[in-house]
Specification:
With 145 residues, the protein is mainly beta. The chain folds into 2 domains: 2-42, no CATH class; 48-143, Immunoglobulin-like (Sandwich), CATH 2.60.40. The chain contains 1 helix and 11 strands; from the N terminus they run H-E-E-E-E-E-E-E-E-E-E-E. It has one helix spanning 2-20, and strands at 25-26, 41-42, 48-57, 65-71, 74-79, 82-83, 95-102, 106-117, 120-121, 129-136, 139-143. The strands form 3 sheets. Strands 4, 5, 8, 9 and 10 form a 5-stranded antiparallel β-sheet that branches. Strands 3, 6, 7 and 11 form a 4-stranded mixed β-sheet that branches. Strand 8 and strand 9 (120-121) form a beta hairpin. The chain is elongated, with a radius of gyration of 26 Å.
Length: 145
């Protein structure tokens, strides 16, 4: 009988030891949108948000001109404020664009800048600027001109 009790206690202790040593899995990358501070082991589930602050240098535009910004031909917003130095994402007057990057830490997007003069967007493609912009899993600043 005593042997049975010792065996039961030993099995119970073994079960407790095995389950208490199990590491919590999750996203361990702090820049990810689903970062888990309690995760001890990365499970490759991290997802990312790319943010870019688009801006224009002071004195580079006429007062009645602004810039319409399109990503992959979808209108994102208008830039009408000029800056003397690179602003951060979310600053007043900055066009900050967020993109879901999924499991990628970077993603390139086609960006088109179309002048907006006197309340009318310029439709002549020779007046547009088209470039690729890389969105990263942080806030980056992108100077148009």
């Amino acid at each position: 009988m005593k042997t049975k009790k010792v065996l039961v206690i030993a099995i119970a202790l073994l079960c407790l030891t095995v389950t208490s040593c199990k590491k919590e899995k999750g996203c361990t990358t702090s820049s990810a949108t689903n970062f888990s501070s309690s995760a001890e082991e990365d499970d490759a589930s991290c997802t990312y948000l790319g943010r870019v602050a688009f801006w224009i240098t002071t004195g580079s535009m006429d007062p009645d001109v602004s810039i319409n910004v399109y990503i992959n031909n979808v209108f994102q917003g208008n830039i009408a404020v000029e800056f003397s130095s690179a602003p951060t994402c979310g600053s007043t007057g900055v066009l900050t664009i967020n993109k879901d990057l999924g499991k990628n830490k970077t993603q390139s997007y086609s960006v088109t800048y179309k002048p907006f003069v006197g309340g009318v967007e310029i439709t002549d493609p020779t007046e547009w600027i088209i470039e690729n912009v890389i969105f990263e899993a942080t806030c980056t600043s992108h100077q148009i001109f």
